[in-house]
Amino acid sequence: MVPYPTTNAALHWHILNAKYRVEKYHKDIGVIIPLDDEELKPLMTKALRRYFNVLRSNEKHIKNVENYLYGTMQNLFGVWWNKQAAREYAAKHPNDERA
């Protein structure tokens, strides 16, 4: 059995680091990820549930649970931001076929 991060503080640290990494990587376009966003909260909950389910299952062998959590959250924030940007683009360019 793979050990979980030991404290809630460890979970928060990895989530915040993933958030900051996505914001820093895309700072040139002004990415800001509000953790209190009503659309993002349930997605974070779902991602954390999937994370813990993977750790509990014997199907996958996670070597570093903290890196796995960080990657999971970084991916979530990136996907969420891209959806927000696409929605905003579609609203500003209603006649664009790509929107």
TrEMBL record:
Keywords: Plasmid. Residues 15-82 form the Replication initiator protein A C-terminal domain. It holds the Pfam family Bac_RepA_C. InterPro entries: Bac_RepA_C (IPR041151). This is Replication initiator protein A C-terminal domain-containing protein. It comes from Loigolactobacillus backii.
